[in-house]
Amino acid sequence: MTKAIVVDAIGGPEKLVWQDHELAAPGPGQLRVRQKAVGLNFIDVYLRNGVYKAPRFPFVPGKEGAGTIVAVGEGVTSFKVGERVAYAAADGAYAEEALVPASQAVHLPDGIDEEIAAAVMLKGMTAEYLLRRTFKVGPDTVMLFHAAAGGVGLIATQWAKHLGATVIGTAGSDEKCALALANGCDHVINYQTTDFVEAVKEITRGRKCDVVYDSVGQATYPASLDCLKRLGLFVSFGQSSGMIRNFDLAVLNQKGSLFATRPSLFAYTSTREDLEATARSLFKVIGSGAVKIQINQTYPLQEARRAHEDLEARRTTGTSVFRV
């Protein structure tokens, strides 16, 4: 018997209950991992509150973690007991021990500890595909990244600056703006006090951006489209303020034959080759020092309710992890 956070119905943070949890032996293709750290992400909120459909009820939330293998299931040949691993896109991370598909796990290299790994598997690999594959960012790129002081934002803006881009960020307070400026942004706009569209036009001298990365959603749409130059790309990869509704394709034509995409990490890492390449690229850029990971909030796992309250109230910056 282990302990886990269990959700028995759609609802608010009060639905996150720390309780005994029966965990089976690993089945074929599975690892049993004794967790050391677990990541906190907005997708956990979406599954708890019903924005995304939960796999079942009751369920254990959480999509990423890191720890040590304590058992392996039949057919697993690339992992063994005692090895350190991290994973993303696997259900049930909010637990002392978790069953993880071996297909979703990666070995942790020396120099990357479990807290860093748990903090970056989802957010860091998201930054990787956004900057390296959804739009290939380079020295000629002018980009806008909303929520630049958030978990993905602080990783992506450092990485984009390392790639040579001109990085414009938005954030919701002066404190968060200062944090974003210290982590790769050339310019940061406080969207609470400033019209970010007009600010982008001023910063770029009317040329606007090649790409806009938007995880905010409802509150920044359709204004994000007005920050794009002709043939620019709108990348909507989240909806922390609410879902974009009634997206009108004709608007893309009217605003300069724009492109739009709604990507997900799961599509970009659906093959073993892609998963390993993405993780390898992420660990390399962290190991080089080009991207520094700031774990700005840590919580005991049993305080998941408080963590969700902080995340939804936007009281967090950078990455947050649970210690198990």
From TrEMBL:
Q: Transmembrane stretches, by residue range? A: none
Keywords associated with the record? NADP, Oxidoreductase
Instruction: Tell me the Pfam families matching this sequence.
Output: ADH_N (PF08240), ADH_zinc_N (PF00107)
What the entry lists under CDD domains is as follows: QOR2
Family annotation (InterPro entries): ADH-like_C, ADH-like_N, ER, GroES-like_sf, NAD(P)-bd_dom_sf, QOR-like
Q: Which domain of life is it from?
A: Bacteria
One molecular function GO term is: quinone reductase (NADPH) activity
GO terms for cellular component: cytosol
How far does the signal peptide extend, from start to end residue?
A: none
Domain Enoyl reductase (ER): start-end pairs: 11-322
Q: Which SUPFAM superfamilies match?
A: GroES-like, NAD(P)-binding Rossmann-fold domains
- What this protein is called in its record is Quinone oxidoreductase
Q: Which organism is it from?
A: Aureimonas fodinaquatilis
Classification from the root reads:
Bacteria, Pseudomonadati, Pseudomonadota, Alphaproteobacteria, Hyphomicrobiales
